[in-house]
Amino acid sequence: NQNFDVKAKHSSEEALEKWRNLCGVVKNPKRRFRFTANLSKRYEAAAMRRTNQEKLRIAVLVSKAAFQFISGVAPSEYTVPEEVKAAGFDICADELGSIVESHDVKKLKFHGGVDGLACKLKASPTEGLSTTDASHLSQRQDLFGINKFAESELKSFWLFVWEALQDMTLMILGVCAFVSLIVGIATEGWPKGSHDGLGIVASILFVVFVTATSDYRQSLQFRDLDKEKKKITVQVTRNGFRQKMSIYELLPGDVVHLGIGDQVPADGLFLSGFSVVIDESSLTGESEPVMVNAENPFLLSGTKVQDGSCKMMVTTVGMRTQWGKLMATLTEGGDDETPLQ
């Protein structure tokens, strides 16, 4: 610490790089540095995130430009799918998503504006959804989805066993055990000549299973902690009353109240508010102020409220949202966690 200023947490990258270079030649570095940030992988992950974000930003901007180009063309006649009509709704999830993601004001007007969409969703901009009929909420969930994203699968215990076997020291011991078995059996016969070799094998298996069990239990604990971090609540109006609700319970038609610092929990449309500025840098790479009004009422999931407060009506949830697609892209290209060696 005196010479390199390496702190237990939040050390500078320069200090970590200098320390790792001086401590590079050590016995079993994979185990020694397993709780230390791998700077090269951190740089690779950061570069990959920037690349994915830039690709998505370009895709969003291109889609906006394309829809602006064709905005002069009147929307085609929309046909409500039979299953949606049978459930009592007059618009489907795909149509709602296309309206909000593309900021398509013309199509929004075609459906009667925000009030028209609320009517087609059988929701009230002031009273919110009605929870008196549980089956109706269940139908809404089946048709429009739930506000959850696909999570990466938990690695199996045997995968941790395989990773533990990749340790160089254990590989060398494995070779020694093999040689010991061959030499011992050749000189002293079976089973006396196999004792040393089998002892080494037993030691290797013991170390592997202890390491794999420890890593597997840690992965379970991290997964539980991650679930706790994701328990986010928002203020929602249902049955005319304002109440706290998990973001996972949101459905199209819900009326959500947002303030400074809140992250938009789903795609939606602005209902009312004042001086609202939305930060869309997580999607486009640039901050874009929303002039809270009939011309631009679109709020994309994952963006943050920088200033003001407002009410929004949820239109799209889960993987159908722009934020859900971004999370899927980042999951395929690399996660946000600091890589460990």
Automatic annotation (TrEMBL):
Keywords for the protein's UniProt record, in alphabetical order: Magnesium, Membrane, Transmembrane, Transmembrane helix
State which residue ranges cross the membrane. 168-186, 198-216
Cite a single Pfam family from the UniProt record. Answer: CaATP_NAI
State any GO CC term.
Answer: plasma membrane
- Which GO molecular function, any one, fits this protein according to its record? calmodulin binding
**What's the superkingdom here?**
Eukaryota
The record ties this protein, via InterPro entries, to: ATPase_P-typ_cation-transptr_N (IPR004014), ATPase_P-typ_TM_dom_sf (IPR023298), ATPase_P-typ_transduc_dom_A_sf (IPR008250), ATPase_P-type_domA (IPR059000), Ca_ATPase_N_dom (IPR024750)
Q: Where is the Cation-transporting P-type ATPase N-terminal domain?
A: 109-185
The identity of this protein, by name, is: Cation-transporting P-type ATPase N-terminal domain-containing protein
Give the species. Brassica oleracea var. oleracea
